[in-house]
Design goal:
Elements: E1 2-13, E2 18-26, E3 29-34, E4 38-44, E5 49-52, E6 54-59, H1 75-84, E7 87-95, H2 102-113, E8 120-121, E9 124-126, H3 132-144, E10 149-153, H4 163-176, E11 179-183, H5 187-199, H6 207-211, H7 214-231, E12 235-237, H8 243-254, E13 259-264, H9 265-269, H10 294-306, E14 311-313, H11 349-359, H12 365-379, E15 397-407, E16 426-436, E17 439-443, E18 446-447
Parallel strand pairs: 1-4, 1-5, 6-7, 7-8, 7-9, 9-10, 10-11, 11-12, 12-13, 13-14
Antiparallel strand pairs: 1-2, 2-3, 5-15, 15-16, 16-17, 17-18
The structure holds N-(aminocarbonyl)-beta-alanine and zinc ion (2 copies).
N-(aminocarbonyl)-beta-alanine binds near residues 239, 288, 315 and 341.
Length: about 475
């Protein structure tokens, strides 16, 4: 039998195993794993690792960001950067601006993505206004249509839900089998801190971190877990930055509560010190929660190693630095409060975790695949189509040279931002080829795919959140 493509003689890694074999690909799917396979095209992977393409389940693309602020990536640039870094599926958020029906929000996002994606894409919903119509009619129908996860925020003026609203969204998730993702930071505490800092003239970007100390994240994490316990529904706490919050999740998991956790690149390799200085450079690192300290980094590594965090994402949320519509907007100099929150990272996520995790011996290859591909795919209802290399799976594959040394430069990431917070990082291990459904999208650092190749993926329900009619 001749396959369309054979990736020959590599070490094939999944979340469970590493085996030396060829991968036969036909019709965009993995068709065989074995030795001596023959194909119309043969890609020599000897001496290389053959990994499932990354699944980045926390990405913001072309998201409305407030007056005069524009996100640096649209679907073309965001998905192209994902592919450069070995990621083959991304899950951006469709943000509901208050007053806009969710179906309209989705129409806009689909229109923005249509024909513009180098990799596959699926959408989470951000719920900012849980009206009766949304809770009672729209969300149940949207879950049926494959939008099976919602993010809710405990902070930000335009997004914050109160506890009652959170309970209501969680109750719908329980009824429909959707998974709720929570941004856990205490809104009132942050406002209080921000006002105090501004009164004291402490307005430089570095004070962004001061305004949201660990305790505001820890308290909200515990509250989110408790609200989920009240409703008896699984919950995913996203972008966890520190030990105290990680320990809330571990405590809940040890109690047997269905609580999941995610951490991100910035919490492993950046600290609050990166925001230092009284100039504006610190704005390049302003994200929420903020990067913390070395002990927090250790805690996030511990959370990843021990499974408290099952998912590792980028929280790619890019704004250009030298730009009036970005980090250096006209208000930003007056206070950190006006610096848009978020940093780019969809392209850097996998190389940094590979280098800092696998190459430095902090995690095994299989763990790397688990947290970057298999677990996000499982958690959000895309497995085994995505996140593994198995017969019948989509042939989404990244071929890695585990010895390749790269000094990271922004230009390599090919995104729409004008900087990377990881500039100059010394990386060991690099994805030298990315294939999406059997088609090459990146080869030797060059984009060779086309932007109409990416598909939109409706998702199954998360296996962690199977629908059960509540007794409430
Ligand atoms: O600062 C961040 N992370 N902005 C992105 C939005 C979010 O909260 O995930
Ligand atoms: Zn968030
Ligand atoms: Zn985010």
């Amino acid at each position: 039998m001749q396959f369309d493509t054979v990736i020959a003689s590599g070490q094939v890694v999944t979340a469970g195993d590493t085996i030396a074999c060829d991968v036969g690909i036909s019709g965009g799917k993995v068709a065989a794993l074995g030795k001596g396979l023959s194909g119309r095209e043969v890609i020599d992977a000897s001496g290389k690792l053959v990994l499932p393409g990354g699944v980045d389940s926390h990405v913001h693309i072309a998201q409305p960001s407030g007056d005069g602020i524009v996100m640096a990536d649209d679907f073309e640039t965001g998905t192209r950067s994902a592919a450069m870094g070995g990621t083959t599926t991304i899950m951006p958020f469709c943000l509901q601006e208050r007053g806009v029906p969710m179906r309209e929000v989705l129409r806009d996002y689909h229109a923005k993505a249509e024909g513009q994606c180098y990799v596959d894409v699926s959408f989470h919903l951000i719920i900012s206004e849980p009206t009766e119509q949304l809770l009672g009619q729209d969300l149940p129908a949207l879950v049926e249509d494959g939008y099976t996860s919602f993010k809710i925020f405990m902070t930000y003026d335009d997004l914050k839900l109160n506890d009652r609203q959170i309970l209501e969204v969680m109750a719908v998730a329980r009824e429909t089998g959707a998974l709720v993702m929570v941004h856990a930071e205490n809104y009132d505490a942050i406002r209080f801190m921000t006002e105090q800092l501004e009164k004291a003239g402490r307005t430089a970007p570095r004070y962004h971190a001061t305004s949201r100390p660990k305790v505001v994240e820890r308290e909200a994490t515990h509250r989110a877990i408790s609200l989920a316990e009240v409703v008896d529904v699984p919950v995913m706490i996203v972008h966890v930055s520190n030990r105290e919050s990680m320990e809330q999740i571990r405590w809940a998991q040890q109690k047997g509560l269905p609580v999941l956790g995610e951490t991100c690149t910035q919490y492993l390799v950046l600290t609050e010190d990166d925001l230092e200085g009284l100039g504006m450079e610190g704005a390049k690192y302003v994200c929420s929660p903020p990067p913390r300290d070395v002990e927090s980094q250790e805690a996030c590594w511990e959370g990843l190693r021990t499974g408290v965090f099952s998912v590792f994402s980028s929280d790619h949320c890019p704004y250009r630095y030298e730009d009036e519509q970005g980090k250096l907007n006209p208000n930003a100099k007056s206070s950190f409060r006006w610096v848009p929150n978020g940093i780019p990272g969809v392209g850097a996520r996998l190389p940094i975790l590979f280098s800092e995790g696998v190459s430095k011996g902090r995690m095994s290859l299989e763990q790397f695949v688990a947290v970057t591909a298999a677990n996000p795919a499982k958690t959000y209802g895309l497995y085994p189509r995505k996140g593994t290399i198995a017969v019948g799976s989509d042939a989404d594959i990244a071929i890695w040279d585990s010895d390749m040394r790269v000094t990271l430069e922004h230009r390599m990431l090919n995104d729409g931002a004008d900087y990377t917070p990881y500039e100059g990082f010394e990386i060991v291990g690099w994805p030298v080829m990315t294939l999406v459904r059997g088609r090459k999208v990146v080869q030797s650092g060059k984009l060779v795919g086309s932007k109409d190749h990416g598909l939109y993926l409706p998702r199954n329900r998360s296996p962690f959140a199977s629908a059960s009619k509540s007794g409430l």
